[in-house]
Every structure is written in C-alpha cells, then in structure tokens.
Amino acid sequence: MIKLTYCLHRLPTLTREEFQRYWRETHAPLVAAAGPALGIRRYVQCHTFESDIGAGTAAGRDMPHGGGEDFDGVAELWFDSEEAVAALLGDQEGLRHAHILLEDERNFIDFSRSRAFMVRENVVIGEP
C-alpha cells in the first residue's frame, strides 16, 4: 500500500470553518463516488483546529517543530501500489473522476500554498 498525503490551505476568500465544511460536506461525497474508479482503498480527512498545544508548537515554545503557517487540513488517500495509480492515467473512467475532483478542489483549495506527496508508512505503534 502507498498513500497520497495532501497538506491543504484554503482559498483566502474562505474562513477555516467554511473550507472544512465544504471539504467535508461537498468534496468528500465526490471522493467517495470516485473511489472505485480511482482505486482509492481508504480516504481520511484530518481537519485542523485551534488548540493551546498547536499554538505552542507553532510558536516554537519548547518544541522543535518550528514555525510556519498552519495547514487547514490534511487528506490521506491509500492505494494498492504506484503501478495501480499510474494505470489510472490510461483509464478514461479514472481520468473522468480525477477531473471532477480537480475541478471541485478549485472551489476551496489554494493550490499555490498546498502540497501533495506519496509516502510509504512505517507503522511504529498500532496496526499497519
């Protein structure tokens, strides 16, 4: 299994709450519908929120995580393999669903400040 991790920033016209509501209520059902065509095995949305712990981390107080701008959320999508994802590039149904998702993402994601990357998990605690 491999995972696409997507660290998201909202469009500047949206509040964090508006961004997360749209992502949860409008975009998530589109991903669920596209899942079989895109070979998505699991999809998780991680919604950030204000907290004293997060504020301490962002300020660098006694924590080595540094500063920087907070993300509004992180999407995690699991696939069988790199080959399975690459095969979607030749599949018309997969491409159609990928286009639908991309067009919807334009409604709430600031692409210039967001970042996606593929990862392999190294589970240290818990079930793989």
TrEMBL record:
Q: Which residues form the EthD domain?
A: 12-112
InterPro entries linked to this entry: Dimeric_a/b-barrel, EthD_dom
Q: Name one Pfam family in it.
A: EthD
Q: Give the Gene Ontology MF terms in alphabetical order.
A: oxidoreductase activity
NCBIfam families annotated for this entry?
A: EthD family reductase (TIGR02118)
Protein name, as recorded: EthD domain-containing protein
- The record lists the organism as Erythrobacter mangrovi
